[in-house]
Backbone:
């Protein structure tokens, strides 16, 4: 019976393929957009707020996933180690020996699902915090006395103009 490739290797290849695809798509968009742009920074001024929030959530979820996956694996390995009377065959990663009992494919998928759920939860919590701060700032502006000038300061252009 042929042994299938490990789940971690398949996930790594998938993440690499997606990142290469996204990077290629971003380069194609920059090449097709105006070549006379003075800045290589992406301008988000034309997008609605929900799209900006969704993009921020995506970045946070994908950024926190590796940490969530590591902590999920470590926590579940430690739990298995404790429930099997501290048997060295079930030890977590740093003290795992050569004859250790590996997780089944079902358990690996469970860990992946828990880590993905944790990453999405972190993104949702961040969204709620940012939304709360935004609402507080808007409420503060609404509560200003009528006729109060609102001064918005922004830095000068790099070229020195307004």
Residues:
């Amino acid at each position: 019976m042929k042994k299938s490739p490990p789940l971690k290797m398949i996930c790594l290849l998938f993440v690499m393929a997606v990142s290469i695809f996204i990077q290629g798509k971003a380069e194609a968009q920059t090449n097709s957009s105006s070549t006379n742009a003075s800045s290589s920074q992406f301008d988000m001024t034309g997008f609605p707020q929900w799209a900006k929030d969704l993009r921020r959530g995506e970045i946070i979820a994908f950024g926190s996933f590796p940490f969530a996956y590591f902590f999920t694996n470590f926590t579940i390995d430690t739990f298995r180690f404790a429930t099997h009377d501290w048997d060295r065959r079930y030890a977590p990663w740093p003290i795992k020996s050569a004859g250790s009992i590996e997780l089944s494919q079902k358990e690996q998928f469970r860990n992946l699902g828990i880590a993905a759920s944790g990453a999405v939860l972190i993104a949702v919590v961040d969204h709620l915090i940012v939304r709360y701060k935004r609402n507080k700032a808007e409420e503060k502006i609404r509560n200003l006395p009528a006729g109060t000038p609102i001064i918005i300061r922004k830095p000068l252009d790099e070229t020195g103009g307004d």
Summary: The two ends are 70 Å apart (CA to CA). Helices lie at 7-32, 49-83, 105-142. Residues 47-74+104-143 form one domain. The longest helix spans residues 105-142.
